[in-house]
Amino acid sequence: MFDHHIQRTIVYTLAFADSLRFSELQPDGVDNKLFSYHLKKVVHAGYVTKNEDGTYSLTPEGRRVGKGALQKQSRYINRAYSLLFLIVRRQTDGAWLLFKRGNQPLLGWSGFMQAQPTPESTAIELAHTACFEKTGLQGDFTVISNGYFRIYKDGELESFTHFTLLACDDIRGELIQQDTFGEYAWVLDPDFSAPTILPTAPTLSHAYLKRDQSFIEETFQL
């Protein structure tokens, strides 16, 4: 996918911004000629585009790679990306815990906590661990549903996800911001139809409220 670590760094850095200038992308200690060469490589490969104002942004394909650019190259971008969606409620007032994304794809949009499955833990074990590590909160999770989500933006595939939905209704502790990829907040009565809410959130919240354990497969157009 990438021929050099500089190319991976370019895509990774752009995953946390709408656009950046050459000087903002260039790592310290890398000369202009070398960096320009690798920047042209990721542009030619279709991961990065140069905008009319001279800045650089990720293409839809580049956004699907996103912060995964530094991961092992065996993660192919057109395969479904496995995720756990975690719905967390505060028992005292029924508030929902929402996460505002700090990286591409869909930078700045809000939805539910996410975690990546691992072979070492069950989904329930991982949900408990991820919730504590990201927020300092603890509680017991149950599996609600699973399925596939496809999100298209301007006709281009933005993300393709195979997910399992888990929920915790008895969360305990004080919220501590420990996630480097975004920010969490308690919301008493979230409007899941708001333009800044991830399109998957209404479907996930409905499945949670109905305790619908059926398989879900949906495609969203932004």
Care to give the gist of this entry?
This protein has helices at residues 5-14, 22-25, 32-44, 60-65, 123-135, 200-210; strands spanning 48-50, 56-58, 81-88, 96-101, 110-111, 113-115, 142-153, 156-168, 182-187, 215-221. The protein is of the alpha+beta class and 222 residues long.
CATH domain class name of the largest domain: Alpha Beta
Order of strands across the biggest sheet? Answer: 6-3-8-7-10
Distance between the termini: 27 Å
Strand residue percentage: 25-35%
Structure description:
- With 222 residues, the protein is α+β, with helices and mostly antiparallel strands.
- It has two domains: 5-70, Orthogonal Bundle (Arc Repressor Mutant, subunit A); 81-221, Nucleoside Triphosphate Pyrophosphohydrolase, CATH 3.90.79.
- Helices cover 26% and strands 28% of the residues.
- The chain has helices at residues 5-14, 22-25, 32-44, 60-65, 123-135, 200-210, and strands at 48-50, 56-58, 81-88, 96-101, 110-111, 113-115, 142-153, 156-168, 182-187, 215-221.
- A five-stranded mixed beta sheet has the order 6-3-8-7-10, sandwiched between helices. A three-stranded antiparallel beta sheet has the order 5-4-9, with no helix packed on it. Strands 1-2 form a two-stranded antiparallel sheet.
- A hairpin with a 5-residue loop joins strand 1 and strand 2.
- Helix 1 packs across helix 3.
- The longest helix is centred in the N-terminal third of the chain and has 13 residues, at 32-44.
- It starts with a helix and ends with a strand.
- 32% of the residues are buried.
- The model has no long low-confidence stretch (mean pLDDT 92).
